[in-house]
Amino acid sequence: MTQTRTTRLERGRSALGPALELVHTGRAPTRAVLTAELGVTRATAGAVAAELAALGLITVDARPGAAVGSQGRPSHRLAVAPNGPVALAAQVHPDGFRAALVGLGGRIVATAPGCMTVPADPARVLGEVVEAGATLLRESGRRCVGAGLAVPSAVAEPEGTALNPLHLSWEVGAPVREIFRRCLDEARVPGPAGVAPATGFAANDVNLAALAEHRHGAGRGAQHLLVVGTGHRGVGGALVLDGKLHSGSSGLALEVGHLTVVPGGRPCHCGSRGCLDVEADPLALLTAAGREPGPEVSLLEQARELIRTEYATDARVRTAVELLIDRLGQGLAGLVNILNPDRIILAGLHRTLVEADGERLRAVVADRSLWGRSGQVPVLACSLDHNALVGAGELAWQPVLDDPLGKLGG
Asked: Which family does it belong to (predicted)?
């Protein structure tokens, strides 16, 4: 490294993390944009980009070309390195698990699904999903920056315990982060220095879906983002405030599944009745449509397939969809009145509902909420497949985004 580059890098080392996050989230596609966003000199931005490239995190094109019709000096294009490091991401849900490798930019490099019955012992399923991820990692030959786990439960901080795994048969308070880290150690999953074990993180699946959508998907650019979704069972929510994920004082914020939308309705696991959790999830749709859930396919896939194939032709299915849309809209309207978000993203089965009849859903939200009537809140389908997995990858990537040189430069 030349003395000039060393001096520039010393001035710009504090900009390495912000620069990497700008490229990671697609907000700095060129060195000129990076310079402007960081508020540094062109030389410093060049040194920062070169150091990130030397760490194997981004690429800088050698011969920049100006776009057709543009004026001024062409700028070097920046992109995440296609063969760079990855995070091991894992997700557990009531019908099984999925492991993945997630690179910068929220790119899923490889995935491996597994099992249809989640055992009561969390160590068993976490051991399986970690082993599946470790196999993917060995096959890829990629450097691992860490590991993240998404679970269908609030995860208390700082303990890392699953407080309400209602749709799993796990004990309340299961130490999921501790178990996950032990499984990473047993599977010899290496961290960025090449020494096992990789650092493991754990969080609620909808919180992680919101993080992923805000950084890489339909929520990009929102300041106050509300995400609501239903996966295989139950309903969850998450909130991004002022551009940052809001998880509350101990990681338990926005348990939206326990809003009452049908007074005196179905009994809920929480002890109440008519909660969104049991009135607007895949099982509720199948029940309303008069369909018996089958054991061979997940409830989520059964509900999605029913809408895809029979919504347009079967009156009972159409009525069931409208019923769930009305219940969901009622819950969203209450959240809009309290939170006043600038965008709502729907995930899981709720994504399919808004795709089937978004006009009806938006009308219910607007009609039943003060802010909806004064200026309609955009209600959009999520745009990322496996967004909770991408979010789990974000957990593992965050220490690198905070300090690229400190984590990968050794």
From this structure: Belongs to the ROK (NagC/XylR) family.
pLDDT at 69: 43
Q: b/e string for 174-186 if b means 16 or more Cβ within 10 A?
A: bbbbebbbbbbee
Assigned architecture for domain 218-383: 2-Layer Sandwich (3.30)
Stated as kind and residue range, the H or E segment containing 46 is helix 42-54
Written as six digits, the tokens of 147 are 């590991």
Radius of gyration of the chain (CA): 23
Contacts of 354 (CB under 8 A, 6+ apart): 346, 361, 379, 380, 381
Class for the domain spanning 3-65+74-80: mainly alpha
Q: 218-383: same fold as 3-65+74-80?
A: no
Question: Which residue, among 2, 4, 20, has the nearest Cα to 409 in the 3D structure?
Answer: 20
Name the superfamily (CATH) of residues 86-207+388-408: ATPase, nucleotide binding domain (3.30.420.40)
Per DSSP, 195 falls in state -
- Dihedral (Cα; 213, 219, 220, 225), 10-degree rounding: -110
- Which residue type, as a one-letter code, is found at position 62? A
Is this prediction's pTM over 0.70?
yes
Confidence at residue 373, expressed as pLDDT on a 0 to 100 scale = 65
In angstroms, the Cα distances linking 67 to 23, 30, 32, 64, 352 are 19, 12, 13, 10, 38
pLDDT of 70 reads 45
Nearest-angstrom CA–CA distance, 118 and 87: 24
8 A C-beta contact, residue 130 and residue 123: no
* Per-block mean pLDDT, blocks of 10 residues, the chain (410 long): 55 86 96 95 93 96 59 80 97 92 97 84 95 96 97 91 87 95 96 89 95 96 95 90 85 84 92 94 96 86 95 97 97 93 95 96 92 78 96 97 90
Q: For residue 217, give Cα distances in angstroms to 51, 255, 268, 385.
A: 27, 22, 32, 10
